[in-house]
Amino acid sequence: QSALTQPASVSGSPGQSITVSCTGTASDVGSYNLVSWYQQLPGKAPKFMIYEDTERPSGVSARFSGSKSGNTASLTISGLQAEDEANYYCCSYAGSSSWIFGGGTKLTVL
Amino acid sequence: EVQLVESGGGLAQPGGSLRLSCAASGFTFSRSAMMWVRQASGKGPEWVSGISDNGGSTYYADSVKGRFIISRDNSKNTLYLQMNSLRVDDTAVYYCAIPFGSPVWGQGTLVTVSS
Description:
Chain A is mainly beta. Chain A has strands at about 10, 20-25, 35-40, 45-50, 65-70, 70-75, 85-95, 100, 105-110. Chain B has strands at about 5, 10, 20-25, 35-40, 45-50, 60, 70-75, 80-85, 90-100, 105, 110-115. The interface of A and B includes residues 46, 48, 55, 89 and 93 of A.
C-alpha cells in the first residue's frame, strides 16, 4: 500500500484559516470513518487533534476541525496562531487491522 | 488518565534482537486492541503490527513479517514487540498505541540498528 498523499507544506498568516488535505483510496479513506490527524513538534510524540474523521479529543481547541469527501479527508485550522506551526500527519484504517499514514505536511505560520 | 509507557529501545547490531515493552494504565487493557507504530527520523509514521484484545489474532506489515513478533500479557497490562533479524532500516522511534476510539500513543522508544 502507498502512503496517503498530503501536501508537503502549507502556510498562512495569523488569524487566517488553512486546510490540509489527505488523499487515499476507496480501500482506506473512502471505506471507513477512521481518519485521524495529529500534530507533531520536532522530537516530540504526536498529539491527536482529530479522530474518526471529525471527532475532537477533549482538550483540543475547537479551531481544529476534520471533514471528508470520498477518498479525501481534510484538516482545517481556523484563527491560525503561531503555536500551530508544526508537522501534521493523517492516518486511516486500511482494513485487516492495518493502518496507513500520510507523509506529513509542514505548517508555517507567516 | 490513559498512559502508555514504552521501554526496551537502544542500540543493536544488524542481525541482532531487541524486545520492546509497553506498560499500559488508566483503561481496561484486556478489552483493547493494540498496535505498534514506528517513525524514522524525518519520515512519516509506519504501522508495524497489531494484536487483538485477547492476543488471539496478530497482524504485521510486510516489512517486518517473519522477523517481529507482537504479544501481550493482560495480567500485567503489558504489550511486547520482539524484534529479530534487525536491519539498519528498522532504525526508528517505536510507539505503542491504542488504535480505535480516541487514539492514544506513548512517548516512544528509540531503536538504533547500526554496526
